[in-house]
Design a protein that fits this description.
With 143 residues, this protein is mainly alpha-helical. It contains 5 helices and 3 strands, in the order βααββααα. The relative contact order is 0.13.
Length: 143
């Protein structure tokens, strides 16, 4: 039986044709620079899409490693996995440069907001006041 005739989708993120799914967990992990468990984690949380072979093995499309790299960048900015999944849900199946520019702009905006909030926190810490008087609820922003 061919792979194309024996796959089922395990995630609803950005569905594609079964014929595009040929990369194993190990392939994607190596290309993305993450552990295989991270690939399964991102699949489980809908950031990448896997299909299963008749033997139950996950297969990913060529975009999976790129999406993981972008997800790792977004996590470094401070987005949660849920926020990243929401962001990815707006990216079309075959994204154009303008689509990636929109994602980048969102990440830049979020990073700038978080940086500003951290600067306020640093200023408060440097002011010499008692730590318990600093309004910890004022930073950092989320989502």
């Amino acid at each position: 039986m061919s792979l194309e005739a024996s796959v089922v989708t395990t995630s609803t993120a950005r569905p594609t044709s079964p014929s595009r799914y040929s990369r194993t967990v190990g392939d994607v992990a190596a290309e993305a620079g993450v552990a295989p468990s991270a690939v399964r984690f991102y699949d489980q949380h809908g950031l990448i899409t896997a299909q299963r072979t008749s033997g139950g093995q996950r297969r990913f499309d060529d975009d999976a490693a790129c999406l993981i790299k972008v997800a790792k960048l977004a996590q470094r900015v401070g987005l949660t996995v849920r926020e990243i999944a929401d962001l990815f849900s707006t990216v079309p199946r075959d994204p154009k440069p303008a689509d990636w520019a929109r994602v980048a702009a969102t990440l830049v905006q979020e990073a700038e907001a978080r940086t500003a909030a951290l600067r306020v926190c640093l200023d408060e810490l440097s002011a010499g006041n008692k730590l318990c008087t600093i309004d910890a609820g004022a930073n950092p922003p989320t989502g």
